[in-house]
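Homework help board

Subject: predicted structure for assignment chain

Our instructor gave us this sequence and asked us to write out the predicted structure in token form, then describe one feature. I got the tokens but I'm not sure how to describe them. Can anyone check?
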Amino acid sequence: MKSNVHIPVLLDEVISGLNIKSNGYYVDMTMGRAGHSRVILSKIKDGFLLDIDQDDEAIEYSTKFLKETGTNFKIVKANFKDIGNVLDKEGVKEIDGALYDLGVSSPQFDEGYRGFSYRFDAPLDMRMDLEKSLTAKEVVNTYSLKDLTRIFRDYGEEKDSYQIAKNILKTREIKPIETTFELVDVIKKSKTMKELRKPGHPAKQIFQALRIEVNNELGSLQISLEDVINRLKVGGRICVITFQSLEDRIVKNLFKKYSVVEGNRVNDFISSKDIKTPDYKEVNRHVIIASEDEIKENPRSKSAKLRILERLK
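My token output:
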């Protein structure tokens, strides 16, 4: 069953963090069901909103949804790693702000047939762009023991990576692993009772790892952020919402790279007037997280972390 129910995470904090100008040019890098985009669009009567998404179902729904608020927007089907090419085609050299709401949207999780969730029995897919060829089924059934172990360890931070990968290979020798529940069974059989009694679903980390691999999420994020940071106008801001430590680490390190000038201190050879000042600053010294009220209303916001970067010069 298709679902379009999506509660935008940290909505007020994002809108405040973007410091929106009514005539500004903004990019929602992960439009989804346009929860954040709708509010951004309502605040830029004389500006323009460019929406990026690679999910045809999200694009179809959000096109109609956003038209209820305004017409000064455009949706482009693309992976956000291609934002540089997209902006070049649009003739846009600089932007006033950008938003990344990373991970899988609520409808994608709730649409069992997409294979993102271990809560529904469905074909192992996990593609955000259904036109792409690589699926989770192919990864599970064709990758080597070494590569599966690496993916589960590096992308899922799963302590039982080797044992799970080993049991996947044993299982697929008999028959291919084709559905989410078949994979969940292998994962559960690979863990001790002590591990299975721990809070949380035992397949969570493996499903995260497969999704990241199928969609090249971490590589795409690194490329995209670099492009967008360099496209910001002075005073422009980037807001990034992450939901797991691997993504947050990339954002944290990149924001530090651009907002801190290394070795910048007064000494016998450098006077205070010669100190270099950074071109960017982190708006929030500590990550912004959801309030208790928001978590009660939307439990998926519990793991959300928001970081904001502003261009100074």
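Reply (TA_rk): Your tokens look well-formed. For the description, you could write something like this. The chain has two domains: 11-101+217-311, 117-215. That's the kind of observation they're looking for.
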